[in-house]
Write a structure and sequence with these properties.
The protein contains 7 helices and 10 strands. It has 247 residues and is α/β, with parallel strands linked by helices.
Length: 247
């Protein structure tokens, strides 16, 4: 795979935003829905800001957009400031015209004995919506996409997982200490992600350079779940110079 490398993340974000805009506009014109797979973390924040700008200044409508987020921390209520439900509403949903009923995230508070059914229902909801048209991804330093920590292979579907220690450390500052970071999460699987028609993985900054190099230069392996993107017909990496610096 040859990644798209941009002078900075602003340029990279514009390229992803343009793809998403063209897709949403074409579907809106045909009176069809657009199904987006969305991600949290610092990486997509400038993309969400650009999409909000396009909504407010250019009239890009999300009224027919349906979203499925990759993951959610187990144990966090929706209104917990670090829940992904809260994050998505703060960073994107509260600022665009998406109907509330079109927004889907795994639940952080589903009872232990209902998790399996909840995950199966999430998979079914994606299929019933017509499948993911466009999935955006960040990448963790463990090589995770969503919360698919190593080892995760391309048979994995939506399920509860145990978070890697590096992932918990990276989240520590936001939670005021690693001891407050949940130990588990519900995530779409690698197979769920690979079913998307188009996948855009974004990575910025030097801290991502090693894992980006390992992901793009290495063999496909469950030890670096992001390597499965190499097997997808329509996946692209959008990188800034620093994230691409070890390629
Ligand atoms: P980040 O996280 O966007 O905050 O770097 C990415 C990830 O862990 O997938």
């Amino acid at each position: 795979m040859t990644p798209n490398v941009y002078s900075d993340k602003t340029e990279a974000v514009l390229a992803v935003a343009e793809e998403m805009t063209n897709l949403i506009k074409a579907n809106n014109a045909a009176n069809q829905t657009t199904v987006l797979g969305l991600a949290t973390g610092g990486t997509p924040v400038p993309l969400y800001q650009e999409l909000i700008r396009r909504h407010k200044e250019e009239g890009l409508s999300f009224a027919k957009v349906i979203t499925f987020n990759l993951d959610e921390y187990s144990g966090l209520e929706k209104d917990h400031p670090e829940s992904y439900w809260y994050f998505m509403h703060q960073q994107l949903f509260n600022h665009i015209d998406i109907p509330a009923e079109n927004i889907n995230l795994p639940s952080g508070t589903v009872a232990e004995d209902e998790i399996e059914a909840h995950c199966a229902a999430y998979e079914k909801a994606i299929v019933d919506a017509g499948g993911l048209d466009y999935q955006i991804l960040g990448i963790g330093r463990t090589g995770h996409i969503g919360f698919n920590e190593p080892p995760s292979d391309d048979s994995t579907r939506t399920r509860q997982v145990i978070l890697h220690e590096i992932t918990r450390q990276d989240a520590g500052p936001a939670f005021d200490g690693v001891e407050n970071v949940p130990s588990k999460a519900i995530t779409m699987g690698v197979a769920t992600v690979l079913d998307a028609k188009r996948i855009a993985l974004m990575a910025w900054g030097e801290s991502k350079a090693d894992i980006i190099a390992a992901t793009l230069k290495g063999e496909i392996t469950p030890d670096i779940p992001a390597t499965y993107l190499q097997s997808h017909k329509n996946a692209q990496f959008f990188l800034d110079q620093a994230a691409a610096s070890k390629l």
